[in-house]
Specification:
Radius of gyration: 16 Å
Helix content: 55-70%
Low-confidence stretches: 78-83
Largest sheet: none
Strand content: under 5%
Number of strands: 0
Order of helices and strands: HHHHH
Length: 83
């Protein structure tokens, strides 16, 4: 399974795409960033979720759930950091 793009990367892609010249296509931006055009569409979707414009798991929620406990950290301690 591929790792998700870092939030900073997604933010850059969305910013460039939203502020692009009218003749610049999403396909060209994808090529410039070295990603598939579908990746940019996913970045737009995640940005909408993070902004609260669309339902779904925010980046912060997903990051919290993916966090692995460090040595000596109990399940209760891990869960309390997610609140």
């Amino acid at each position: 399974m591929r790792q998700p793009c870092p939030k900073e990367f997604r933010d850059d892609v969305v910013s460039v795409a939203l502020n692009r010249h009218e003749k610049t296509t999403i396909a060209q931006i994808a090529k410039d960033f070295g990603v598939h055009e579908g990746t940019i569409n996913k970045c737009f979707g995640q940005a909408d979720i993070d902004a609260g414009n669309k339902p779904g798991r925010t980046t912060d929620e997903s990051d919290d759930e993916a966090r692995v406990p460090v040595a000596g950290e109990s399940a209760d301690q891990l869960c309390s950091t997610r609140l």
